[in-house]
Amino acid sequence: MDTSVRIQLEEIEKETLSPYATLSVNTKGRLRDEEQCDIRPVFQRDRDRILHSKSFRRLKDKTQVFLTPEGDHYRTRLTHTLEVSQNARTIAKALRLNEDLVEAIALGHDLGHTPFGHCGEAVLNDILPNGFEHCKQSLRVVELLERHGKGLNLTKEVRDGILNHRTSGKPFTMEGKVVRISDKIAYINHDVDDAISAKLIKEEDLPIDIREALGMDVRERINTLISDIIDQSHNKPEIIQSEKIKDAMNNLRKWLFANLYKNTKATSEESKAQDLVYKLYDYFFKNPEKLTEEYKNLIARGESKEQVVADYIAGMTDDYAIFTFEKLFVPVGWKIQYAMSE
User: Fold this and answer.
1) Which of 47, 94, 305, 306 allows an S-S link to 104, with CB 3.0 to 4.6 Å?
2) DSSP H stretches of helix in the chain
3) How many CB atoms are closer than 10 A to CB 227?
């Protein structure tokens, strides 16, 4: 073969993608230069690095909204991530944007989330002198914490999309903008779905004007939101929603904050989870020698102890945080082994 598979794929991008898409050959590069892969363009390679990372695997045991739910069908941080990725890829394909870039950003956007969801994030934000935001921590994961302090060395486009995936973010690629809106579409819809499954709300509790604008069930609402973005953004250099749909989506988000995210049944265990995170932070800050080697090495390299302890706790799954807390603070009984004599 005269040319590598990668080069052929890059040529296909040039021929088929929108003029507003981010071509792999036009990447702004990595933090550290490295040889190109013969098979995969740069954004596909980034996607694979994220998919194979330890922090990605840990998402399966991190809270999305409901702490320690009883049942197998509630979303975790991992299933949320996959739903964001699917929404984003659907939009990107329809608009002829770079699906590899979209998927890499989507799969990496929540790698820095703490155990116990946003209530765990709130604790670290309260403790750290410069605060804590999961979007910044996600960037820190891929730039430094993965691979024992080496990071994943992702492209600037992916790192920018990860950092700017929140509503207030301003990603510089169209693909990053797709992920930013896809994140919101995913969580406002799957959180409704989970809340209905948990019998915290009923479908009929949603304001009728929102249901009439977006759809009468979760499936219809997702379809409406994605279709509207595709229709409004076709052949345009921005990701756009119609005013009617945008207002309805924002009103649904506000309704969720007022009626679900602050619901006492949904948040009944949050104070316990927050106390746990406070105690873990205090313990490891006072006893940094108890950190694992890779985190002790970060302190030795000059990283602040406050940040490294936060890194360690943010990387924990819900179950591991509970296990560590019990190991450190909950007394356990001991047994005398009696020798049996004949």
Assistant:
1) 47
2) 5-16, 42-51, 54-58, 77-95, 99-108, 117-127, 134-140, 146-149, 156-163, 174-197, 208-214, 218-233, 243-259, 270-286, 293-300, 305-314, 318-329
3) 14
Contact residues for 16 (Cβ-Cβ < 8 A; gap 6+): 96
Pair 111, 53: CB distance under 8 Å: yes
Checking if the pLDDT of 1 tops 80, the result is no
Residue 172 class from Cβ within 10 Å (0-12 exposed, 13-18 middle, 19+ buried)? middle
Q: Is 133 exposed, middle or buried (0-12, 13-18, 19+ CB in 10 A)?
A: middle
Residue 70 — φ and ψ, nearest 5°? -90, 110
CATH superfamily name and code, 5-271 = Hypothetical protein af1432 (1.10.3210.10)
Q: What pLDDT sits at residue 75?
A: 87
pLDDT tens-place string over residues 314-329: 999 999 999 999 999 9
Q: What is the pLDDT of residue 270?
A: 87
| Secondary structure (H, E, C), 42-90 | HHHHHHHHHHCCHHHHHHHHCECCCCCCCCCCCCEHHHHHHHHHHHHHH
Is the pTM higher than 0.85? Answer: yes
Within 8 A by CB and 6+ apart from 289, the residues are 296
Compute the Cα dihedral for 278, 281, 282, 283 and give only its sign.
positive
Q: Kindly report the average pLDDT of the chain as a whole number.
A: 93
Cα 187 to Cα 9, 80, 133, 237, distances in angstroms: 33, 7, 18, 25
User: Rounded to an integer, what distance in angstroms lies between the CA atom of residue 80 and that of residue 255?
Assistant: 20
Distance separating alpha carbons of residues 169 and 83, to the nearest angstrom: 20
Tokens 């998402």 correspond to 59
Residues with Cβ within 8 Å of 327's Cβ and at least 6 positions away in sequence, in order, are none
Using DSSP's 3-state secondary structure scheme, residue 322 falls into: helix
Mean pLDDT along residues 171-188: 97
